[in-house]
Structure formats: C-alpha cells, structure tokens
Amino acid sequence: MYYRDPSGAPRWSAVPKTDAQGHAFLPVYEADEPSTQPAPKPVPDPSRKILYYRNPMGLPDISKVPKKDSMGMDYVPVYEGEDSTDGTVKLSPGKIQRSGVKSEPAERRALHVLVKAPGVIQLDERRVSVIAMRSESFVEKIADVTTGSFVKAGQPLMQIYSSAISSAAAEYLSTINSKTTGTIEAFGRGSRQRLVNLDVPEETIAEMDRTRTAPVRVQWRAPRDGIVLERNATEGMRANVGDVLFRIADISTVWALVDVAERDLGSLSVGQKVTIRARAFPDRALSGTIAVIYPQVNRDTRTTRLRVELANPDLKLLPDMYVDAEIDVGGDAPVLTIPTSAVLDSGSRRIVLIDKGDGRFEPRAVTLGRRGDGIVEIKHGVDEGEAVVTSANFLIDAESNLKAALKGFAEAADAPAAEPSASSHSHSHDHTGAQQ
C-alpha cells in the first residue's frame, strides 16, 4: 500500500526510498494496515481494586498510576486476584482461545516401549561337529559331498586307511578268537577300547564281531544332520593326527546375536520375547526369547550382546546374515501416563501445567518414567484424572515468567525509600530473577 519510515517516525512514501541514514523504508501491505477505528481504551472496573498498571506490550514495566507508553498506548490495569500468589497462572478466555490451549487428563494405560537393535545370525555352538583324525591316516575315497551340501546323520563321507587302526583291529580279533575266557575279559576289553579311542565307528566294530575279520578301509559317516561348512579332505591325501577333514553344522536352530545400547540394558531380562526380522526377508517376523545376556559391555560401542535362539525349519536363516530385533519392554500392566507434548523440559527439571479451570494453570514438577507411542509414564507429580496442558504450554510458561518478572518489579517499587541499601539489593535481586 505504501512505505513507512523504519524508525517509526510519521513519514511515508508511495515508492521505495531510504532515510537519511541509508535505511530502507518498510513496506506496509493491505493485510497489515490497522483498522481506522481507534483501539478501545482500557476502562477501569470501579468494583475491583487495581494493584498496578502494566506495560501493554508485555515489557517488564509497571506503574502505580495510569500512564501511556512511548507509542501512546494506555497501560493495562491489573486487578486484585489476577496477580495470583498461589503459583498459578491466570489467562483470560480470549487469550486461551487465541493460543489454542488444549488439556488432557492423566490416565492409566499400557505403555509399549520398543527397544530396537541390530544383530547377526550365528551357528548354535552345540550343533557343530567336526571329523578329525586320531591317528595318521590316508584318505582313499570321498563321497559326493562338497562344502554347502546338506547331509543326513549316518550318510557316508569318506573311506580311510590307517595302520594304527589296522593294528588295533588285528589285536582285537586275536583276543576275541582266543578260547581263554579270562583273556577275553581282561585283555579283550582293553583292545576294544583302543579301537574306540581311535574313533573307529561302532558299526565297524560290530561288523568285526560278526565277521571276525579286520577291514582294510574304515567308512566314516556324518555324525548329524546339517550343512557341510568345511571339506578339507582330498582323495589320496595323508591326514595327520588332529587334522579336521569335515565340519558339519545343524542350522535347524540358530542364534541371533543382538547388540543393544547400554542405556536399555536395565529394562531387559532373560525370557523376554523378541521379534526378529532378517533384512533378506523383511516381511517375515520370527519370534524368539532372550536366552543369554552376555556379562560384558563393549567399551568402544557401549553395547551389550544378547543371544536369541530361533527355530529355522526351512533353513533360510544363514550364518552371518544381518537381522533387526524389536523387544517390547513396556509390559501389559497399566501405568499413569500423559502425552509427551505436555512436558516442558528445562534440562534440570521437567514441568507440566495443570489445568485448574477458569483459566488458571499451575506449573508442577514431575518425575518421568518410560516413553513410547507419544506418551510418557508419570511416577510423581500428577494424580490420575488431573488435566495437563498438551498444546500452547510454552506460551503459558512464557506468561508465567513474565508475571514473575512484573511481580519482582512491583516488589522493588514498593520497597521503602528510607532504606536505599535494602531497596537497591532487592531491586538487583528481582531484576536478576526477571532475566532468568
């Protein structure tokens, strides 16, 4: 519509321009143009006692008598009863409506809090077997089994020849072929144990008992159902004592090792239910329980490891596969809660505003518990059914700070003039409080 002087002086321009200091005139739009009707002057209520007059712009300035500010606006009277001494803040209905103040009662309800953490699939240590030689041997034949093959318990893996096994077998046969009963009981038991100590399969020993002949080669079979993780055997190779030729793992049950943050450790316990989702199959939720909480904290990541046992009947969960875990630590027991938006957090304490009705609001310190789903648990400070402000609480908090500042200036103004040192001290103290 036009341009006005940036200093507030009564100078206008129809086109953009600058003042003597080089500051640009400010544009005034049609929506900004004030009404041509003069603002109504505050009319004192003769039936109520006026305590003081406050600055109409909210500045911490009061007066004992009616006056105007630098822009010609009348100071607003503050009546007895409006300046509450019980710690509450009182707002007019119009201000409450303009601010959009909303309240909600504190109520008891189940609070579901999810602890989320990443993890990785690992083998169940109790379901891993190795085939290692207990004597110097030679691998003569290997079945059609490779790394990654699925084998059944008892399935042939390889045939080996060992001079130590052949010697022990001959000794055993000579014992069981003897007709001396005492020799069989005393010496025969020891020679059979020697075969067992060499890890000769029980079925091979039984076959020797039946046929009374020593085998040239010994058949080695899979000790369990599972996946071949390692195949180190090669036909014709010599295997030394202790060499691992096969490593087989049963992955029908696997572990999910989950790393949870140190701050969540206090809400976890063995037996809690865990939902696991593999990143390879995000739409598939697997259910398990916490089996072990490892007794150490990683000093670098500040996490603690949990072990969750998972059934894996279709064998889709593979070792080293990444997963995401969700643990509900809230429980089903109802607790007293309020919306999270109702809490004013100053860093050192948490405040909520209690709606006392008739435009009165009481600031109150509270002790909080767990958070989740947009609500927070209240341990101390609010009773069930009390209404707390959930929106525009920052505006009410600002109003309370302003009133505290005005009250401080009023007390400073009322200080006896005959005691300058006390008055000066009181004013300095209250001014500091107003700044805070």
TrEMBL record:
<dbReference type="GO" id="GO:0030288">
    <property type="term" value="C:outer membrane-bounded periplasmic space"/>
</dbReference>
<dbReference type="GO" id="GO:0015679">
    <property type="term" value="P:plasma membrane copper ion transport"/>
</dbReference>
<feature type="region of interest" description="Disordered">
    <location>
        <begin position="23"/>
        <end position="48"/>
    </location>
</feature>
<feature type="region of interest" description="Disordered">
    <location>
        <begin position="413"/>
        <end position="436"/>
    </location>
</feature>
<dbReference type="InterPro" id="IPR058792">
    <property type="entry name" value="Beta-barrel_RND_2"/>
</dbReference>
<dbReference type="Pfam" id="PF25954">
    <property type="entry name" value="Beta-barrel_RND_2"/>
</dbReference>
<dbReference type="InterPro" id="IPR058649">
    <property type="entry name" value="CzcB_C"/>
</dbReference>
<dbReference type="Pfam" id="PF25975">
    <property type="entry name" value="CzcB_C"/>
</dbReference>
<dbReference type="GO" id="GO:0016020">
    <property type="term" value="C:membrane"/>
</dbReference>
<feature type="domain" description="CusB-like beta-barrel">
    <location>
        <begin position="253"/>
        <end position="327"/>
    </location>
</feature>
<keyword id="KW-0406">Ion transport</keyword>
<comment type="similarity">
    <text>Belongs to the membrane fusion protein (MFP) (TC 8.A.1) family.</text>
</comment>
<feature type="compositionally biased region" description="Basic and acidic residues">
    <location>
        <begin position="427"/>
        <end position="436"/>
    </location>
</feature>
<dbReference type="GO" id="GO:0060003">
    <property type="term" value="P:copper ion export"/>
</dbReference>
<dbReference type="InterPro" id="IPR058790">
    <property type="entry name" value="BSH_CusB"/>
</dbReference>
<keyword id="KW-0813">Transport</keyword>
<feature type="compositionally biased region" description="Low complexity">
    <location>
        <begin position="413"/>
        <end position="425"/>
    </location>
</feature>
<dbReference type="InterPro" id="IPR051909">
    <property type="entry name" value="MFP_Cation_Efflux"/>
</dbReference>
<dbReference type="GO" id="GO:0022857">
    <property type="term" value="F:transmembrane transporter activity"/>
</dbReference>
<keyword id="KW-0732">Signal</keyword>
<feature type="domain" description="CusB-like barrel-sandwich hybrid">
    <location>
        <begin position="128"/>
        <end position="249"/>
    </location>
</feature>
<dbReference type="GO" id="GO:0046914">
    <property type="term" value="F:transition metal ion binding"/>
</dbReference>
<dbReference type="Pfam" id="PF25919">
    <property type="entry name" value="BSH_CusB"/>
</dbReference>
<dbReference type="InterPro" id="IPR006143">
    <property type="entry name" value="RND_pump_MFP"/>
</dbReference>
<feature type="domain" description="CzcB-like C-terminal circularly permuted SH3-like">
    <location>
        <begin position="336"/>
        <end position="396"/>
    </location>
</feature>
<protein>
    <submittedName>
        <fullName>Cu(I)/Ag(I) efflux system membrane fusion protein</fullName>
    </submittedName>
</protein>
